[in-house]
């Protein structure tokens, strides 16, 4: 039994659950091709809710030391004689056999489901589908971008960060382009994966059919397409081209979330932090684990002391952080839990904040320090109490990058971005950092080149694919 068949089984379940209303069009031919032969059927297939375990990024936040465990007593987990993945990552234990602790992985399985049974089904059936050909061209473009984004997340979790000097030989992930489930998905190198990422996005943009603004933020528009392109190029250290793509994306959406209106309510207890998930104006593409993300998550001591700036509106001017619940959830003194159930964060997609921070870094990396710092201030001015807000300044790239890394860490707290960004910076000597986590007097250390930065492929995939060797 090959990996493609494994993906087929999983994805058949997804298709039945997400497209049940199109059941009469979902007969399978022997090689797994789906008889969705009308444009309307393919359009409906793209109406996926990107949520659940596929987009649960808490493990990445745990590795990056953004948060502790979700509602587990941290001291008890550490003192336990039972070796679990939670304990391994909490204590940065590089000696544990993480592959043996990973029989399955909802992120890995789910992302490939979206690739195989949404994006690739659309692309496979598009050329023969009957109906509005203009809409069909749009759906193809959406599918290309969707496929690229899902693969981008996968390669950044399960492989090394892109390094121009080693990418051609570094082990990557399978890049799945079809629905021939009878063949093995051979693992590509990191360079091959990134070449495919760019090819898919460029193909989508060349069709020139994506809407300026999609019907909702779980569909693909031009802003998201250019944002994905920018992410890819930034990861490849092509800062000048990434800047061009970022500026293109900003033409379609430049709205940043603003916390200053909270201060208009004079009573602190009545300042209610809200964000309307799918309808939030700063969304480029919306994906999440739970609708109440990031409620009940707990920031680490290091996040609270080293990264939050004085006057941060959420931390210092609202009751979002609840210390009583924090102790209840993780068993650590002076650690709060985020409690704001009306705030639906975009924990696994992309927002305008991604664009602004990418633009800042691209400018800084191309020696436009003042311009790069001006982009950082667009974030800070909306996050810090105006009564104490002071502009930051930098005289060189190193200083500017230090400011960017600090601001970025809070802006993308409890999302996948911090893990991917830190991992990317760790591949460069200048901006590599050692993470130190101190719990009850003991310090645990994560080095920039630790194998823990690369997630293990699950056994459910490796046992069916001999090419899927671990990348650490």
TrEMBL record:
It is found in: Cell outer membrane. Gene3D superfamilies: 1.25.40.390. PROSITE patterns: PROKAR_LIPOPROTEIN (PS51257). SUPFAM superfamilies: TPR-like (SSF48452). Keywords: Cell outer membrane, Membrane, Signal. Transmembrane segments: none annotated. GO terms for cellular component: cell outer membrane. Residues 353-472 form the RagB/SusD domain. The keyword Nucleotide-binding does not apply. Pfam families: SusD-like_3 (PF14322), SusD_RagB (PF07980). Residues 65-234 form the SusD-like N-terminal domain. Belongs to the SusD family. This is SusD-like N-terminal domain-containing protein. It comes from Sphingobacterium paucimobilis HER1398.
């Amino acid at each position: 039994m090959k990996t493609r068949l494994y993906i087929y089984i999983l994805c058949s379940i997804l298709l039945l659950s997400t497209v049940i209303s199109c059941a009469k069009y979902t007969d399978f031919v022997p090689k797994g091709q789906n008889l969705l032969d009308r444009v309307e059927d393919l359009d409906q297939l793209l109406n996926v809710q990107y949520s659940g375990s596929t987009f649960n990024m808490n493990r990445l936040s745990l590795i990056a030391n953004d948060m502790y465990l979700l509602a587990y007593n941290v001291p008890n987990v550490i003192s336990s004689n039972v070796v679990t993945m939670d304990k391994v990552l909490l204590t940065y234990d590089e000696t544990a056999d993480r592959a043996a602790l990973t029989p399955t992985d909802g992120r890995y399985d789910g992302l490939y489901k979206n690739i195989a049974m949404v994006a690739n089904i659309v692309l496979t059936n598009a050329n023969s589908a009957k109906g509005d050909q203009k809409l069909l061209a749009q759906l193809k473009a959406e599918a290309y971008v969707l496929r690229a984004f899902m693969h981008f997340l996968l390669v950044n979790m399960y492989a090394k960060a892109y390094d121009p000097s080693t990418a051609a030989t570094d082990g990557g992930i399978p890049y799945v382009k079809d629905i021939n489930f009878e063949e093995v998905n051979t693992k590509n190198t990191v360079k091959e994966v990134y070449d495919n990422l760019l090819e898919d996005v460029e193909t989508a943009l060349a069709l020139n059919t994506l809407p300026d603004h999609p019907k909702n933020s779980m569909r693909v528009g031009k802003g998201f397409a250019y944002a994905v392109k920018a992410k890819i190029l930034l990861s490849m250290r092509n800062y000048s081209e990434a800047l061009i793509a970022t500026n293109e994306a900003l033409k379609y959406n430049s709205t940043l979330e603003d916390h200053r209106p909270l201060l208009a309510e004079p009573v602190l207890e009545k300042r209610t932090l809200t964000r309307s998930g799918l309808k939030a104006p700063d969304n480029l593409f919306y994906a999440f684990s739970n609708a109440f993300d990031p409620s009940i998550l707990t920031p680490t001591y290091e996040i609270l002391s080293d990264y939050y700036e004085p006057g941060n509106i959420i931390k210092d001017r609202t009751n979002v952080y609840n210390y009583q619940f924090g102790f209840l959830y993780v068993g650590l003194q002076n650690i709060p839990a985020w409690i704001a159930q009306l705030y639906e964060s975009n924990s696994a997609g992309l927002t305008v904040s991604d664009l602004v921070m990418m633009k800042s870094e691209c400018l800084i990396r191309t020696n436009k320090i003042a311009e790069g710092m001006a982009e950082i201030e667009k974030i800070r001015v909306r996050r810090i109490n105006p009564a104490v807000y002071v502009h930051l300044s930098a005289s060189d790239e190193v200083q500017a990058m230090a400011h960017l890394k600090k601001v970025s860490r809070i802006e993308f707290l409890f999302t996948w971005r911090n893990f991917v960004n830190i991992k990317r910076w760790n591949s460069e000597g200048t901006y590599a950092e050692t993470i130190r986590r101190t719990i009850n007097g003991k310090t645990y250390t994560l080095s920039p080149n630790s194998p823990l930065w690369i997630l293990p492929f699950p056994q459910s995939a490796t046992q069916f694919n001999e090419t899927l060797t671990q990348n650490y």
